[in-house]
User: Which sequence fits this backbone?
């Protein structure tokens, strides 16, 4: 049976960074992903990565912006760590070979980004995530002797012993269908968010909340799950993301009257207010009949105000996206966008070392909630989050591995349960609904009721729908009865993961009776620091989500009214 | 826009069935500007969940869904149904797995066995120039924008799928991996440019194994221009590092260049002597040329029988009018007279349409890079090449 000091689930930026850090610390490392590492959704991050590297900047300014962006729900000790370690991390990436674009002096160039008080976003055109991910993968190829790559292995469950410690995972080789147990002193979950819970979403089809659900089922609490980010600029039909870098380079948002409507809600930062603020302002324009395009469901993003050469050089990807996915030449005409689900601030609750409350289980990246993003994440802070806390989790897990023995656990019972589950899915009679129908209904109900604006009635409808869909999912049938690349059966398992995530999100959104960050309750439109300046934790109690609370950590910054 | 019906004809293969690959047809209903991937996913969701295809981002950035559509390599998510149906035979959009790689199931191929093995061949990581600075390396803006073109490769395998040289010689390192190699050779922070170039030039399946067919350029959904990167590797290897490869690739290429300059067209009878003996009278008797001539005889005879060339002009040379010859030479003077070599790089110079409509938007429409616009230059027109190293 394979056994490693550190087993990482997910090979996006957090996972690869954790693997490199743990291997460097001398641990035996394996990194497992249901897709090839460069297909991970980190690849789609476009705009850049924040770090106070300019001589005029200070990490405290970055930290303050992040705290304010989080609507004071972010934990300030974690934010201080992330922002103070950011410059060294970005330099480390540069030394690894990331092709960051330069200024006239040959130093890293920095672009403006939403909610930031100065230019502090380093970037590679508008393919920053891709460049980072591919460069980290170059490093994995370089260190192939110390990091074992398990590409296209799907994690089915976490192994825990009688004392509740995490001892490894059970996984299925996608290519052969073989199920195997992997023992590990430490497991690091780094398998991303749960965007597919929504429809449409900017997130890839693989982003199905696997890690969140695995931890939730193993007893770990989820935190800030109600905080779901809607990105202000997504293509109307498909939800494809248009980078915030466009606004960072100077693009305008216009309503049907051609007005820069951000002037009313964010007179100072305008289009570069934080994402929750901009998305709400857009949704108000659309709801009040000032939208553009078919049905007035969109807003114009005008990139033509950015010099054409600059656009072609620094925003080339969205030039392509506009041309190929919307039929628009963004250098010559405005493109129609709207807010769309993009990111979940919440996730598996961890401390600043990436430790979850389950011994031996870590989490880093979007799957985790440290919480550095609180109620709303600033653009270009997610890449930073994945790398800083991926590295910290990798280092800490490697150190812990040196101090503990390899768990002795009979993995066979769990392995049999997982195998039986797959058999049972494959054997289901063809009655009831298909997996895809349930998934579509879930996405639509979440996007209708658990979106930019929420209220009790809509949330209750969502809760009832999710509960019903869970029952239907238990009987949903599939076509593929094979073992080789049976994506059908994995889709049924992913649907279960997504429903768990949705359940936690809805429960937390119902619980928080105030408006903060990405959670705007039309029935409780004010922020209520007295009652709700605290995290909501959701854990699984038997079969139902149970609500708990954690305090927010403050260091330097007391809550203030948030203006941009 | 209204929904229309599209017939998808997919190449299926189930390795567990023991049956040969077969065609499977489904009709889907979508707006014409939706992607072929959306069509495949609809077929999978509604009719047959066992259709195998890798996919994730739906926006041509994760590189998962490389397939062949109507015989041409493409990303399924990046091809509109209306465009695909225009190239369809009998109204059905044909979707097959990529070529040059073993099929695992349906539209899923084994990329590790081919593509990634070749990527690993080119030492695909930065070898840092020493000393590593405390902060960032100070490097030119244009050099980073330049390597961003190859950094933009999403490793989808479309170019590998369609590489003709690889079809003949499966050992050819190939377009994607060689483009990846340029990403380091063009990176001023890398310390091993010469070693990398020498390695790839001396390898008989390296940079001189490319046959210049442009298929990878057309296949690439991200404008990486893999063949262009291979040609840049050749130019840097030969012109900047004076690498003389044992495959004779450098001199063979030089022979073509000087022949076209001298005669306006290729002069077939002169090609081998010049490739081996260089551009001099005595070169005509280079023993290696004779040897190559002997071993090439079957090819020559076959070409003659099929009318690929005319024996008279092949031996005595083509006769061009003086004004045509002068026009060819003018191109040489213009290109070779430049102080710096120009390289095509879309990130640096903007796209081709700039050349057609430089004044479309007077404020922003005119790129400031020299050579970026209206000049009619063969092969390499475009912006400044900064990173070739000297």
Assistant:
């Amino acid at each position: 049976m394979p056994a490693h000091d550190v087993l990482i689930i997910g090979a996006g930026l957090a996972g690869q960074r954790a693997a490199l850090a743990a291997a460097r610390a001398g641990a035996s490392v394996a990194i497992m992903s249901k897709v090839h590492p460069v297909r991970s959704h980190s690849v789609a991050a476009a705009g850049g990565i924040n770090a106070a590297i300019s001589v005029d900047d200070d990490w405290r300014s970055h930290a303050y912006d992040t705290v304010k962006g989080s609507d004071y729900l972010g934990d300030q000790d974690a934010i201080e760590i992330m922002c103070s370690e950011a410059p060294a991390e970005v330099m480390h990436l540069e030394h690894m070979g990331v092709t960051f674009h330069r200024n006239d002096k040959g130093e890293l160039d920095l672009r403006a980004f939403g909610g930031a008080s100065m230019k502090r976003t380093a970037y590679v055109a508008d393919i920053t995530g891709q460049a980072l991910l591919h460069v980290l993968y170059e490093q994995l190829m370089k260190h192939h002797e110390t990091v074992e790559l398990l590409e296209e292995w799907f994690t089915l469950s976490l192994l825990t012993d009688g004392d509740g410690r995490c001892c490894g995972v059970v996984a299925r080789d996608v290519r052969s269908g073989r199920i195997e147990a992997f023992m590990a002193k430490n497991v690091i979950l780094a398998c991303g968010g749960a965007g597919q819970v929504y429809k449409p979403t900017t997130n890839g089809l693989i982003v199905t909340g696997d890690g969140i659900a695995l931890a939730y089922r193993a007893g770990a609490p989820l935190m800030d799950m109600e905080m779901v980010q809607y990105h202000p600029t997504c293509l109307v039909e498909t939800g494809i993301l248009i980078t915030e870098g466009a606004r960072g380079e100077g693009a305008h948002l216009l309503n049907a009257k051609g007005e820069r409507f951000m002037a009313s809600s964010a007179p100072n930062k305008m289009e570069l207010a934080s994402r929750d603020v901009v998305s709400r302002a857009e949704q108000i324009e659309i709801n009040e009949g000032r939208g553009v395009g078919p049905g007035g469901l969109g807003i114009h993003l005008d990139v033509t105000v950015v010099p054409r050469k600059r656009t072609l050089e620094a925003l080339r990807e969205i030039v392509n996206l506009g041309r190929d996915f919307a039929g628009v030449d963004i250098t010559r005409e405005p493109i129609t966008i709207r807010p769309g689900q993009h990111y979940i601030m919440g996730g598996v609750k961890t401390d600043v070392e990436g430790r979850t409350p389950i011994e031996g289980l870590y989490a880093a990246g979007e799957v985790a909630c440290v919480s550095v993003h609180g109620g709303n994440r600033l653009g270009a802070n997610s890449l930073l989050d994945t790398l800083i806390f991926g590295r910290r989790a990798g280092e800490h897990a490697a150190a812990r591995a040196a101090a503990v023995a390899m768990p002795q656990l009979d993995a066979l019972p769990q392995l049999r349960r997982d195998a039986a589950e797959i058999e049972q899915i494959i054997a289901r009679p063809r009655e009831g609904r298909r997996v895809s129908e349930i998934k579509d209904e879930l996405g639509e109900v979440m996007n209708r009721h658990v979106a930019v604006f929420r209220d009790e009635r809509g949330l209750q409808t969502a809760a009832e729908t999710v509960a019903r869909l869970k029952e239907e999912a238990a009987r949903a049938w599939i076509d593929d009865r094979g073992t080789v690349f049976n994506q059908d059966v994995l889709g049924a398992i992913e649907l279960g993961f997504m429903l768990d995530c949705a359940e936690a999100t809805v429960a937390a959104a119902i619980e928080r009776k105030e408006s903060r960050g990405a959670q705007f309750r039309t029935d409780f439109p004010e922020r209520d620091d007295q009652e709700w300046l605290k995290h909501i934790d959701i854990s699984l109690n038997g079969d139902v989500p149970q609500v708990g609370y954690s305090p927010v950590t403050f260091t330097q910054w007391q809550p203030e009214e948030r203006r941009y | 826009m209204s929904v229309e019906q599209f017939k998808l004809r997919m190449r299926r293969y189930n390795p567990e069935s023991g049956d040969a690959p077969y065609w499977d047809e489904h009709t889907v209903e979508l707006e014409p500007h939706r992607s072929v991937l959306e069509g495949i996913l609809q077929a999978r969701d509604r009719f047959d969940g066992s259709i195998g295809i890798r996919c994730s981002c739906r926006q041509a950035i994760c590189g998962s869904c490389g397939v062949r559509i109507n015989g041409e390599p493409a990303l399924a998510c990046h091809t509109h149904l209306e465009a695909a149906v225009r190239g369809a035979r009998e109204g059905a959009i044909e979707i097959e797995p990529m070529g040059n790689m073993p099929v695992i199931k349906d539209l899923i191929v084994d990329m590790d066995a081919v593509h990634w093995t070749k990527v690993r061949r080119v030492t695909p990581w930065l070898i840092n120039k020493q000393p590593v600075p405390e902060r960032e390396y100070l490097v030119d803006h244009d050099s980073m924008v330049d390597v961003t073109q190859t950094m933009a490769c999403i490793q989808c395998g479309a170019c590998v799928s369609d590489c003709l040289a690889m079809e003949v010689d499966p050992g050819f390192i190939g377009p994607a991996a060689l483009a990846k190699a340029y990403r380091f050779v063009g990176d001023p922070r890398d310390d091993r440019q010469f070693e990398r170039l020498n390695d790839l030039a001396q390898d008989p399946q390296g940079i001189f194994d490319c046959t210049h067919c442009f298929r990878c350029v057309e296949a690439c959904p991200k404008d990486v221009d893999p063949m262009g990167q291979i040609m840049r590797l050749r130019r840097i290897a030969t012109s900047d590092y004076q690498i003389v490869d044992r495959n004779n690739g450098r001199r063979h290429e030089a022979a073509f260049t000087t022949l076209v300059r001298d005669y306006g067209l290729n002069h077939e009878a002169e090609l081998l002597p010049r490739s081996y003996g260089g551009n001099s009278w005595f070169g005509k008797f280079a023993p290696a040329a004779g040897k190559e001539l002997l071993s090439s005889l079957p090819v020559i005879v076959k070409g003659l029988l099929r009318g690929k060339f005319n024996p008279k002009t092949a031996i005595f040379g083509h006769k061009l009018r003086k004004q045509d010859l002068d026009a060819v030479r003018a191109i040489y003077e213009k290109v070779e007279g430049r102080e710096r070599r120009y390289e095509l790089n879309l990130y640096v110079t903007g796209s081709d349409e700039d050349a057609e409509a430089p004044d479309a938007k007077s404020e922003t429409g005119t790129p400031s890079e020299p050579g970026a616009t209206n000049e009619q230059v063969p092969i390499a027109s475009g912006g400044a090449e900064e990173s070739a190293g000297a």
Summary: The two ends of chain B are 55 Å apart (CA to CA). Confidence is low (pLDDT under 50) at residues 350-390 of chain B. The longest strand of chain B covers residues 4-12.
